[in-house]
Amino acid sequence: MNRLLIVILLLCVFLLAGSTAFSADDALANQFYKEGKDFNKQKNYHAAVKSFTSAIELKPDYYDAFLQRGYAHEKLDSIKHAMRDYNSAIQLKPEMSVGYQFRGFINMVKLKEYDLAIQDYNKAIELHPSYAPYYYFRGMARQWQGDLNGAAHDFEQALVIDPNHKSAREKLANLKKVMRP
Q1: 128 and 85, same structural domain?
Q2: What confidence tens digit (pLDDT) does each residue in 28-53 have?
Q3: Range of 123's domain?
Q4: What string of H, E and C letters represents the secondary structure of 107-164?
């Protein structure tokens, strides 16, 4: 009886050992990811990029690592690399709105590609329609593009969702002053 128990126990150990290769890589990737987040918080973006790159090398489908590395690249004004990472995140999880938000922000603020920014915010809103900042940022892109009515509508929608959205309230008030005949 003891022999049978030992054989079963050894079999379980061998089976578990075979699956630890994935969990060891995942654990190490998670450690690099946490390290990268700490570097981002410390504004040590070069080190953050290295840590997130290590995480991605171990776990090529690491969505959050792509987003965080994109953020670090953005802070380093490496816009091409940031866009590549945000595009990778979107390819990995097209059902998640955050990648569209981050890419939309770069399109709007850094590249002045307002049509592309609006497309990204449209998709983010489609995926998460109850998140006021998406309407706010789309309103900003519309305002900078010259679509004041569209911008006002988006700021109003942001305020419907979040009546305490101070920036949307201020932008809407300023727009109404400009739009008065």
Answers
A1: no
A2: 999 999 999 999 999 999 999 999 99
A3: 115-181
A4: HHHHCCCHHHHHHHHHHHHHHCCCCHHHHHHHHHHHHHHCCHHHHHHHHHHHHHHCCC
